[in-house]
Amino acid sequence: MKHRLEDTGEDPKSVRDILIEMKNISEKIVDLAFSSVMFDSEDIAREVLRLEDRVDDLLTMLRMKVLMAAETARDARRLLPILSIAASMDDIANAAGDLAKMLLKGFKLHPIVLEALKMVDEVIVRVDVKHSSPFIGKTISQISHELNVDFTPLVLCRGGRTIISPDENVKLRQNDYIIVKTTTLGAETLSKMGGGSV
Amino acid sequence: MFKEKVSKVMNMIIELKNISEFMVDLAYTALLYNSVELSEEVERLEEYVDDLHVNYELNILSLAQFEEDAGKYLGALRVGLVAESLADAALSMVKPILNGVEPHEVLRIAINESEETILKLRVDEESEIRDKSLEELRLQERVGVRIVAIRRNDKWILNPSSDIRIQVDDVLFARGALRDLEEFRKMVGSK
């Protein structure tokens, strides 16, 4: 669904800000789409669709800005690559959206695909904070530091709420679970130390 | 027969996902440094992913015929499409560089320089690291650099395991801080 610029209800941003936001979303949205199908989460899938819409809006805003900025053929030539990069970020978001939509339509990922996705270099895993977990009361950045494991938190689930890209300074509570992206080794360490299940 | 196909498809998913994510990384690095060389690697990889993706889709289709519910394989196709669109995006990011247009200033700002970057090096006859395994080299400890990919003939080895031996003519992609990469360049000793 395309909106007019005025409909997005916010101050027009600079080309730079739009690009930064698009880049951030296009990086995050792929991991989130995979998280949604791997862990069968409709909440995350809906979040992916929301982000996909946002990227659409940003692309429209960016196109308008760039059109207004070009005065000469030389300008246009230099600005053209910005549009094509933004369009490919939109493509990424659309592909991620299609993956998430599949889940919302009731299709599940085939077990062999799930199995394969656990064997990639940078794997997405779910870490449960159970009642005896040493992670209780610790922040995400503390855990990363103490275990010497680099990981990117994608989602924090707390009492039925799904928080996307949680702050690294949030303290984990019992019964929370986080979905993170990390190396295979990191995933092992996290599940072993956290006493959670992968 | 069926089992073989399944394991083939699984390996393809792993490769598609690893390579496409690496490509985006490589494309951002190419944009930051306006590097034609890295852009050409992205282009090469994109062709590779194209072939791999077609092959993957064919394999999925032939697996699906054994299944009553073909819908089970819809997700497999869409996973492939995500990889494919990441690869295409990476290529279209570096297209201007390949066409001789310097990336617009604002792109570089948007990518925001990270501390780490990627260096590409070819191993020649005289290199000290030839015939050594990554385990022996202990690059992470010695120079703080990690080999993220090796191009060997027309094959790609993503995140090579420690038992992989470096061969003459291997093209290495190392990730690390600029300073450490310079150290690594000396260590490899290739021209």
Can you walk through the features of this model?
The complex is a heterodimer of chains A (198) and B (191). Chain A is of the alpha+beta class and 198 residues long. Chain A contains 6 helices and 4 strands, in the order H-H-H-H-E-H-E-E-E-H. Chain A folds into 2 domains: 100 residues, Phosphate transport system protein phou homolog 2, domain 2 (Methane Monooxygenase Hydroxylase, Chain G, domain 1, Up-down Bundle); 76 residues, Regulator of K+ conductance, C-terminal domain (Alpha-Beta Plaits, 2-Layer Sandwich), CATH 3.30.70.1450. In chain A, helix 1 packs antiparallel against helix 2 and helix 2 packs antiparallel against helix 3. In chain A, a hairpin with a 2-residue loop joins strand 2 and strand 3. A 4-stranded antiparallel sheet of chain A has the order 1-4-2-3, sandwiched between helices. Chain A is elongated, with a radius of gyration of 19 Å. Chain B has 191 residues and is an alpha+beta fold. Chain B folds into 2 domains: 107 residues, Methane Monooxygenase Hydroxylase, Chain G, domain 1; 74 residues, Alpha-Beta Plaits (2-Layer Sandwich). Chain B is built from 7 helices and 4 strands, in the order H-H-H-H-E-H-H-E-E-E-H. Chain B has a 4-stranded antiparallel sheet. In chain B, strand 2 and strand 3 form a beta hairpin. In chain B, helix 1 packs antiparallel against helix 2, helix 1 runs parallel beside helix 3 and helix 2 packs antiparallel against helix 3. The N and C termini of chain B lie far apart (47 Å). At the A-B interface, helix 1, helix 3 and helix 4 of A face helix 1, helix 3 and helix 4 of B.
| Count of spatially separate domains of chain A | 2
- Contiguous runs where pLDDT drops below 50 for at least 5 residues of chain B: none
Strand fraction of chain A: 5-15%
Kindly name the structural category of chain A. alpha+beta
Radius of gyration of chain B: 19 Å
Q: Which CATH class of the largest domain in chain A applies here?
A: Mainly Alpha
